[in-house]
Amino acid sequence: MAEHLQYTSLLIRSLYQHGVRHAIISPGSRSTPLTIAAAIHPGIEKKVVLDERSAAFMALGIGKKTGLPALLICTSGTALANYYPAVIEAKESGVPMIIISADRPPALRGIGSSQTIDQLNIFGNRVLYFHEAGEPTGALSDIKRIHSLGQQVVDIATSRGGAVHINFPFRKPLEPSKEQLNKQIQLSEKQAKDHNMPENAISGRVIHLNSTILSLLAASERPLILCGPADPARSLQQLARKTGELLNAPFIAEPGSSINYQEGDINRYEQFLRDPKQISGLKPDLILRFGDQPFTKSLLTALESWSDVLTIHFNAREEMQDHNLSVDYHLHCEANDDFNFSKINKKSSSDWLLKWNNMDQNSDSVLAGELSAEPKLTDGHIFHHLSTTLDDNWNMMLSNSFPARDMALFGKHRKNQFVNRGAAGIDGILSTAIGQHISGDQPTCCIIGDLAFLHDSNALLSLNTMKYPFISVVINNGGGTIFRMLPVSTMNHNIDNTDLYKTYFETPQQSDLKKLTEANGINFIRITNLEDLRQLDLNDFDDSTIIECMTDADRSMSLRKNLWQN
User: Fold this and answer.
1) Which DSSP string do the residues of 47-62 spell out, in sequence order?
2) DSSP single-letter state for residue 126
3) Theoretical Cys-Cys bridge with 429: which of 28, 177, 399, 409, CB 3.0 to 4.6 Å?
């Protein structure tokens, strides 16, 4: 039908006008008008991804890296349902995303027609906005609505952080005529040639804090800065740094906070803040939180213990991020805002900051000694090595379970470091990293466990056409060893002659990652000892590579426990 491509091309051009530059497309028939509309627009970077679940996490990665929504296009039926895990993560972590699904016309719904499901509001309250576009009619009012829809969904997705969903029912024929196709090609090419990237409409504000907040800042003798996860577009690094320097406060930034590491940052908090005595002795009188809810065990424990301490939370998201329900004041800020601190004098050096710095330095020495004394290749060696050797221009994606926590324990935070800590699942980690990779011009390192790697192995289909090196470091420690932190790991009970804990929780796998990787045409390296690791320099890599690190799970856990107890 003539209106199909007219509608879809108009929507694509409207999305482009308002900043969308990436489309992830999964192949299908009913989505033909959507796919063609994206394909003919030269200003849209396209990537075809077979697995819709992987595609959705790639779109998530693009949104995390750029702060702008990527476009997801799929056909009707279960294809759309495969987006669900990434849609949940987008909402929980505040990442913009735009879904455009093809659908069968209403006349085919509810009568057993093949590949036809109820797609209306399929994501419920997991999306920020749903729009049923209706069948194209060519009416002027409908065309005006489609044009306005692009700006509407971009504004909603970026301002509130999360996915929006547009559903397009199409009748056959789905393919345009040659004349229709040429007309839309000309319009799309003209727009791409004449249109520049829109400027950020939100200019930086100077925030004048109220008298209560200013009084708290001025009176504090033991202030503490905590920075939780935040994607680059929502990172309050400038505000956090300015506040920390003014107050001469200890500064803690978790992995994934998008905060540049600076000399003097408190880096080894995951060691000493697990000790109740240290938590008590380092109790602040004012906590200043920036970004999302912290996730490391040490900070969660400390915040619970310090729940009576006055806490101010600065965040660029509207959603509540207060696990302990201990925040007294919430302030919404944008990444390019500035504070007016003219009424507060900068504090001189204090014993308070020195106390934290000494604790951090002592713990760093303990870490170096423990790593040096351990002859086996452990998980900790991997994180410490990559933290000290990887150039600052690299993206780094950290998988959930132990990797994000181990970076805090053995490594350090950095600007281009990413985590999926919204729903904190192990699904889509590789795909999220690929999304970050293809939306920028930097090499990428994804550190991932063996189970999470296998969980997202379809992402390997997208790795052999990367412009810059994409390295996935797979820590193969024999399964889900994070479950060793749970009481069930000590039950020592068999059911039907099988170990209850190992079979149903740790789930060790025997997959040959080398064969899996090489079957997808990707380079593979296996590291089995410390000498191999010391020779590894990712900065010298030119091609995408999977590096499997065979670590000792028992020694890795012993090393963690030694650090937590010192």
Assistant:
1) EE-S-HHHHHHHHHHH
2) G
3) 399
> Which token pair is 292?
């999302």
Which pLDDT belongs to residue 565?
Answer: 82
Across the range 190-207, mean pLDDT stands at 77
- How far apart (Å, rounded) are the C-alpha atoms in residues 88 and 161? 12
Q: Which DSSP string do the residues of 445-501 spell out, in sequence order?
A: EEEEEHHHHHHTGGGGGGSTT-SS-EEEEEEESSS-GGGGGSGGGG---EETTEEHH
Q: Which helix (H) or strand (E) holds 100?
A: strand 97-103
Sign for the CA dihedral angle at 214, 215, 220, 226 comes to negative
The 8-class DSSP code of residue 237 comes to H
**Per-residue pLDDT tens for 547-562?**
999 999 999 999 999 9
In 3D space, the residue among 93, 168, 167 whose CA is nearest the CA of residue 126 turns out to be: 93
Percent of the chain predicted with pLDDT > 90? 86
Q: Is the pLDDT of residue 76 over 60?
A: yes
Q: Which amino acid is at 79?
A: A
- Radius of gyration, alpha carbons of the chain: 25
> DSSP H helical segments within 157-296, as ranges?
178-194, 211-219, 237-247, 269-272, 276-281
Its pTM stands at 0.95
pLDDT in tens, 285-327: 999 999 999 999 999 999 999 999 999 999 999 889 999 999 9
Exposure class string for 452-462: b at 16+ Cβ within 10 A, else e: bbebbbbbbbb
Residue 223 phi, psi dihedral angles, 5° rounding = -80, 155
CA distance 434 to 59: 9
Output the six-digit token pair for 257. 């906070």
Residues forming a β-bridge with 495? 498
* Whole-number Å distance between alpha carbons of 380 and 410: 6
